# Entry
Amino acid sequence: MTASLTLVSHHLCPYVQRAAISLAEKAVPFERIYVDLSDKPDWFKAISPLGKVPLLRVRHGSAEDVIFESAVILEFLEETEANPLHPTDPLARARHRAWIEFGSAILNAIGRFYCAPDEAAFLHESRGLSEMFARVEAELSARQSGPWFAGERFSLVDAVYGPVFRYIDTFDRIGDFGILDSKPLVQAWRAALSRRQSVKEAVGADYPQRLHAFLRAKGSYLSGIIRRQAIAAPQALSA
# Structure
């Protein structure tokens, strides 16, 4: 497609990362601009019906169209750009789309995990996440996949789960919550994605620090763990 693309982003949004990974895998040039979702500029509110990112601004000639919602953006790129990331077989493609939806459900569960207000809710959400990843483990085992979800071919499912595992990386730096325990295939997939250039470059170098600060400010049970660690760290250094 002959068009100029701009990805309207937020530094932490996992749904933005999906689109950035897809664009990189397809070797499509694009501009990326960031908005502060806590102080949305008027131009952004005017073109984002849901007030969310990502947006893909598509300029063709003197006209511009704006596409919103990450799933729609991914499908648009599949239909208009080379290097498809979906399988060609309709049944396989449907299966991939279903596991993409499951990836979105995991992101929702991750949100509940880091927003859990107390220990009981936190442990409940941790178990729920572990069970969801157990389903992913079973799927990988049944399909004998590796290193990617579809075997040797990187797909949109991989683009979706790269940002998912980025959260787990940050959680692991805070504590051992056991979410991926006894899931070797998921762990191997996570490790492969962490090395993929498109996945690494979907966020800025300061992403871990930004996410850590975001989690600390949530006022949740996890926030309390982070704050207690910050208090204990200077004491450990002076001991």
Summary: The longest strand covers residues 4-9.
